[in-house]
C-alpha cells in the first residue's frame, strides 16, 4: 500500500515539474527589453525644395542661313567644328548671280550713255529756246528726257549694288565664335530662300555655359524666384550633382494633358564639358534655404512613450500618470494652438524621460528647425527597438511569428510610440 502511495506521489511531482518546464519554456511571456533611439540636435542647413524635369540647352544658339538661293558648292566645317567669328563656313555656286551682275552692269553703261546724250540735247535745246528758235513744249520735252535719263542711271546703280550684295552672300560666314552643333546641308544640295531662310548650320556660342529649361508645375511655380539655388542630375552621370541658379521664370504657360507648366531657366556652369545639349535633367529647386540653424528629425516630434517605454524607463511628464501608464491623459494635455510649437521627449540622467516643448521653424517633412527649447547636448528620442535578452543587439525575429504591437514611425523607419506633436 505504501509503495502505491509512493508511486502516486512520484507521478504527481513529475507532473508538476513537467507543467513547470512547459510553462517556463513555452508559455511564460518573455519580458521585452527595448533600446531607445536618440539623436542630438545638430547645426546645419535645412531647406524646402521642389522637383521638376527639363532639358539642357546652350545659353545662346545661332541658326546660320542663306539669303540667296543656289547650289552648295563647298562646305568648310562639319559637326562639332570650332569656328571663329567671320570664318568662311560654306559657299554657294556664284555663277548665276555673277551673270546677273554682269547684265545689270551692262544696263548701267547703257543708261549712262543715254544720260550723256540727253544732257547734250538738253543744253542744245536750251540755247535754241533762249533765242526763240524752238517752242516751250520742245524745251520741256528735252528737260523731261534728261531727268528720266538721270533717274534711270540711279535705278540701275541700285540694281547693280543689290546684285553685288547677292553675289557676296554666296559666301556664308560665321557670325559668332562657337561650336557647330548641326549641319543641315551637303555639297551639291540646292537651297531656296524664296519664302523663308533655310538653316544651314546651328552654332552654339559657348558650351562651357549651359542652361536647363525646367518645366515647373503650376502648383509649385508660386515658390520659384529668380536667384534661387538649384541642383540637377543627368542620366549620363547619375552619381554626380550639378549646381545651377534660377535666372528666369517665363510667364508663358504650356499645357500638356490638362497640366499647366511654366518654363523656368536655370543657368549652370559646364567648364568640364560633361553636359551635352539635349540631355534630360532631373532638377531640384531650393525654394527656401536656412543655413546654420538647429534641426532635428521630424520623427522626434511624433514620438510618444507607450506602455513598453513606461515599463523600461521612468517617464517624467505632466501628460503621464506614474510608471504604469504610457497613455496621455487628455484632461492634462495642453493642446498646441500654435503651429510653430511642438513637443519632443529627451532622455536624461538615470534614464529619466522628460517631455520638452519647443518652438519650430522650417519643416521639410524630413527635418525640422528648432528655434528654441533644446540644447546641443539634449538626447532627443526618435523611436525605439526591441532587443533580445541574450544579446545587446536587435533580436532576430521570424517573419512567420506574430509581432508585438508597438507604435511606429514612418518617417525614419524605427519603432517607437506615436502621438501628436
What does this structure look like?
With 421 residues, the protein is an alpha+beta fold. Helix content is 25%, strand content 38%. It is built from five helices and 20 strands. A six-stranded antiparallel beta barrel has the order 2-11-14-13-12-15. A hairpin with a 2-residue loop joins strand 12 and strand 13 (237-256). Residues 320-337 and 390-421 have low confidence and may be disordered.
Low-confidence stretches: 320-337, 390-421
Which outline best applies? rod-shaped
CATH topology of the largest domain: conserved putative lor/sdh protein from methanococcus maripaludis s2 fold
Structural class computed from helices and strand pairing? alpha+beta
Instruction: Work out the oligomeric state of the chains in this entry.
Output: single chain
Q: Give the rounded overall mean pLDDT.
A: 84
CATH level-two architecture of the largest domain = Beta Barrel
Instruction: Kindly estimate the percentage of residues that lie in beta strands according to DSSP.
Output: 35-45%
Number of helices: 5
CATH class of the largest domain: Mainly Beta
Rg, Å, rounded: 45 Å
Amino acid at each position: 500500500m505504501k509503495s502505491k502511495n509512493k508511486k502516486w506521489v512520484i507521478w504527481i511531482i513529475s507532473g508538476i515539474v513537467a507543467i513547470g518546464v512547459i510553462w517556463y519554456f513555452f508559455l511564460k511571456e518573455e519580458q521585452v527589453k527595448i533600446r531607445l533611439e536618440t539623436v542630438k540636435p545638430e547645426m546645419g542647413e535645412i531647406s524646402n525644395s521642389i522637383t521638376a524635369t527639363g532639358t539642357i540647352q546652350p545659353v545662346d544658339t545661332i541658326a546660320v542661313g542663306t539669303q540667296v538661293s543656289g547650289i552648295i558648292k563647298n562646305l568648310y566645317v562639319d559637326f562639332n567644328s570650332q569656328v571663329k567669328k567671320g570664318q568662311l563656313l560654306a559657299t554657294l555656286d556664284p555663277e548665276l548671280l555673277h551673270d546677273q551682275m554682269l547684265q545689270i552692269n551692262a544696263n548701267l553703261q547703257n543708261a549712262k550713255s543715254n544720260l550723256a546724250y540727253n544732257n547734250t540735247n538738253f543744253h542744245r535745246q536750251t540755247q535754241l529756246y533762249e533765242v526763240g528758235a524752238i517752242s516751250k513744249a520742245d524745251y520741256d520735252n528735252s528737260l523731261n528726257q534728261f531727268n528720266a535719263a538721270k533717274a534711270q542711271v540711279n535705278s540701275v546703280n541700285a540694281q547693280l549694288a543689290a546684285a553685288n550684295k547677292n553675289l557676296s552672300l554666296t559666301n556664308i560666314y560665321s557670325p559668332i565664335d562657337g561650336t557647330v552643333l548641326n549641319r543641315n546641308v551637303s555639297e551639291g544640295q540646292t537651297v531656296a530662300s524664296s519664302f523663308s531662310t533655310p538653316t544651314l548650320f546651328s552654332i552654339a556660342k559657348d558650351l562651357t555655359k549651359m542652361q536647363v529649361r525646367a518645366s515647373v508645375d503650376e502648383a509649385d511655380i508660386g515658390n520659384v524666384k529668380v536667384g534661387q539655388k538649384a541642383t540637377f542630375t543627368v542620366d549620363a552621370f547619375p552619381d554626380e550633382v550639378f549646381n545651377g541658379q534660377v535666372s528666369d521664370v517665363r510667364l508663358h504657360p504650356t499645357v500638356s494633358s490638362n497640366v499647366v507648366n511654366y518654363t523656368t531657366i536655370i543657368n549652370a556652369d559646364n567648364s568640364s564639358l560633361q553636359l551635352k545639349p539635349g540631355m534630360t535633367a532631373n532638377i531640384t529647386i531650393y525654394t527656401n534655404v536656412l543655413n546654420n540653424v538647429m534641426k532635428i528629425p521630424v520623427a522626434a516630434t511624433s514620438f510618444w512613450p507607450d506602455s513598453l517605454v513606461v515599463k523600461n524607463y521612468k517617464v517624467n511628464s505632466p501628460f503621464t500618470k506614474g510608471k504604469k501608464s504610457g497613455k496621455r491623459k487628455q484632461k492634462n494635455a495642453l493642446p498646441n494652438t500654435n503651429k510653430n510649437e511642438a513637443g519632443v521627449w529627451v532622455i536624461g540622467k538615470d534614464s529619466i524621460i522628460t517631455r520638452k516643448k519647443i518652438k519650430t521653424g522650417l519643416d521639410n517633412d524630413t527635418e525640422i528647425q528648432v528655434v528654441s527649447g533644446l540644447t546641443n547636448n539634449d538626447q532627443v528620442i526618435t523611436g525605439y527597438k526591441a532587443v533580445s535578452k541574450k544579446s545587446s543587439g536587435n533580436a532576430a525575429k521570424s517573419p512567420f511569428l506574430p509581432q508585438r504591437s508597438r507604435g511606429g514611425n514612418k518617417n525614419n523607419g524605427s519603432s517607437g510610440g506615436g502621438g501628436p506633436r
